[in-house]
Design goal:
It contains 5 helices and 26 strands. It has a domain of 87 residues: Beta-lactamase Inhibitory Protein, Chain:B, domain 1 (2-Layer Sandwich). It is mainly beta. A hairpin with a 5-residue loop joins strand 24 and strand 25. The longest helix has 10 residues.
């Protein structure tokens, strides 16, 4: 049985093979998350503008591959499970990661909505903790993809061979060359028969940021190149792509806030005119993680993303047990009204809300009911997010898990 697998094995290993031994960041750091985050739930909505204010519309995902998700992190800050959901809140699929004592991924299992396994990846390391083999299996346990790696005495990957039995797979051999700092400066792609197909060349600044990337065809002719620029925090602030005749194809410019989150993306045409301007507006919790992101395209609100971050020590579900409606009695006993009275919320009241409080405790402090933004139930853990908003637009959000407060955030409260 062949599966239409999207090759995370091949794509992930291709990037990993060029940076052996260099992954010093865990997933929390890579995702720019602060504090001891245990779980992260991401829900997307259509943005609706009414009376000059941007409000939540219907649940809507921006694209097919960027689904709503519920992520659980292990004690080392790496992803343990990812559960994906459709816009109607129904469970779509799940990915489970397994690590060795060196915090390296040794197995990834992919499950469909009916809880059946549809793909498995395995990773093998040598005594120097370097990846030497990886294997991808379909739902019937048949080998579909495999890869092997060779290294130099500095533990840089010098060769990678990919083989696939799938029509969607990737087959070929890569040779890698590095500078004295161990930075990849050239990769050459060959067929398994040894015929050269293409090559890539790279250059870096003194901080290790990639400044230059060029693609060449099998004859050594330049196909295209990209020039990169960075700020002092190593954030990419500009990239310009050129064709084989050194004509600009496009330019993208980026601006970040002081938390290194992207706030502006300027997409420019070859003549420097605007193709698109994308803005992002954020609201943060007290750990400096954003909990609400508004995306505007050419000043028109398009999407709102809400994030629920769990900082407590309670762990999410370890087995696939997805239900849309809550079956937890402690949650059933509480009512979360969908419509709120006009709230009068102050920062002083907000500060009194503590982890572990129930909904009644919160209402007693604030004096009014909240507006339910979303609700999901996963393996006996029901997560509900409510909002209290003042007439001037200042607001606060509280996330409850199984009826108890686990995190909160505010914007503009006085």
């Amino acid at each position: 049985m062949k599966t239409q697998h999207l090759l995370p094995l091949i794509l992930g290993i291709l990037c990993f093979s060029c940076n052996q031994g260099e992954k010093t960041k865990n997933d929390l750091e890579i995702m720019n998350l602060y504090g001891k985050v245990i779980s992260l739930e991401v829900v997307s909505f259509e943005a609706v503008e009414k009376f000059g204010e941007i409000e939540l519309g219907e649940r809507k995902q921006e694209n097919l591959w960027d689904k709503d998700s519920y992520i659980i992190f292990n004690e080392n800050g790496n992803i343990e499970t990812i559960s994906k959901y459709l816009s109607n809140g129904s469970f779509d699929r799940k990915i489970i990661y397994d690590y060795n004592e060196k915090k390296q991924i040794v197995e990834i299992n992919y499950y469909l909505k009916d809880q059946s396994l549809y793909y498995k990846e395995k990773y093998i390391y040598n005594n120097q903790n370097l990846l030497i083999n990886s294997y991808g299996y379909n739902s019937d346990g048949e080998l579909e993809e495999s890869s092997s790696f060779q290294y130099d005495n500095k533990e840089n990957a010098t060769e990678a061979i990919y083989k696939s039995n799938s029509e969607y797979g990737h087959t070929g051999k890569y040779a890698y060359e590095y500078n004295e700092k161990g930075e990849l400066i050239e990769s050459i792609y060959y067929t398994l028969e040894g015929e050269k197909e293409s090559s890539n060349k790279f250059a870096y600044d003194n901080n290790g940021n990639r400044l230059f990337w060029a693609l060449f065809n099998k004859f050594g002719e330049l196909t295209k190149r990209t020039i990169y620029k960075y700020d002092d925090n190593k954030n990419l602030i500009e990239e310009t792509e050129y064709d084989s005749n050194d004509r600009i194809i496009k330019t993208n410019k980026y601006i970040y806030d002081h938390f290194n989150n992207l706030t502006e993306e300027h997409n420019l045409n070859p003549d420097g005119s605007y193709e698109k301007l994308i803005n992002f507006k954020y609201e943060y919790d007290d750990k400096n993680n954003w909990v609400k992101k508004i995306k505007l395209i050419n000043d028109v609100p398009k999407f709102i993303t809400i994030r629920f971050l769990g900082y407590n020590n309670r762990k999410g579900p370890e087995l696939i047990d997805i239900k849309i409606e809550s079956t937890n009695e402690s949650t059933k006993s509480q009512t979360f009204p969908k419509k709120a009275s006009t709230p009068q919320i102050t920062y002083a009241k907000y500060s009194k809300i503590k982890d572990g409080m129930n909904y009644k405790d919160v209402v007693n402090i604030l004096g009014v009911n909240g507006k339910e933004l979303s609700r999901t139930s996963i393996g006996g853990y029901t997560t509900v997010m409510l909002m209290w908003e003042n007439p001037d637009g200042s607001n606060m959000n509280v996330m409850f898990q199984n009826g108890e407060v686990i995190t909160k955030a505010q914007f503009g409260l006085k």
